[in-house]
Amino acid sequence: MTLDPQEPKYKMDSSRIGSNPGLGFRPSPPYYATQSAVIWFNVSRNETVEHWVTDLNRFLEPYRHSSLKPCSGNETATPGKACLFPVPTGNHSCTSERQFGYLEGKPCVLIKLNKIYGWIPESYQSPPVNLRRQLKSSFLKNRVYITCEGANPSDRDNIGETTFYPHQSIPGLYYPFVNQKNYLAPFVFVQFVDISRGVLVKVECAAWAENIDHNKQDKTGGVHFELLVD
């Protein structure tokens, strides 16, 4: 039997990363603070904003120049074809032109599902209670929902309003990931519209689908980072 070089020998539960996806976030901390999950900046000091904006632009560069085509109608990703994920545009701050909201003190953070070979989200037929209370719009099926809230009561007091772009969820048409050529992971932007200034806010974001479990110890189903806006 000849092994497919595109297909890993061990997949899903038999692999080291398993079948329960975690989340990642951008912008990433500077190279000298790789163990940190703190995004800190001062809105009146451009030099403190520069790294975060540059890191987001660097991450988005392949999306802007992708040769992939959008999927439409009932099209989905297949073993031979990935779907283009368009960078969100429009009249909002989560764009390069608006410095992703950092100079306004309304930072945008990019949230993405970590890639797991062959994984396909199983949509909720109706949202569970903990998801329902955080929905920003009507619930849609065949999507992975993303929520972000303060980790503790004090964080929830200081996190303020959040807004998601292009939507609070990721359509299922981008799955499965099976090492398609030029595949780019879908994502959402979460914007912290009126986060408290001068206070370190611990943020926990979670992904929601029937086959996503949340385990903070194993760092699956979610991601943690901290924001400090001066």
TrEMBL record:
It is found in: Membrane. GO terms for cellular component: sodium:potassium-exchanging ATPase complex. This is Sodium/potassium-transporting ATPase subunit beta-2. The gene is nrv2_0. GO terms for biological process: intracellular potassium ion homeostasis; intracellular sodium ion homeostasis; potassium ion import across plasma membrane; sodium ion export across plasma membrane. Keywords: Membrane, Signal-anchor, Transmembrane, Transmembrane helix. Residues 1-22 are annotated as: Disordered. InterPro entries: Na/K_ATPase_sub_beta, Na/K_ATPase_sub_beta_sf. It comes from the Eukaryota. Transmembrane segments: none annotated. It comes from Araneus ventricosus (Orbweaver spider). It is a single-pass type II membrane protein. It holds the Pfam family Na_K-ATPase.
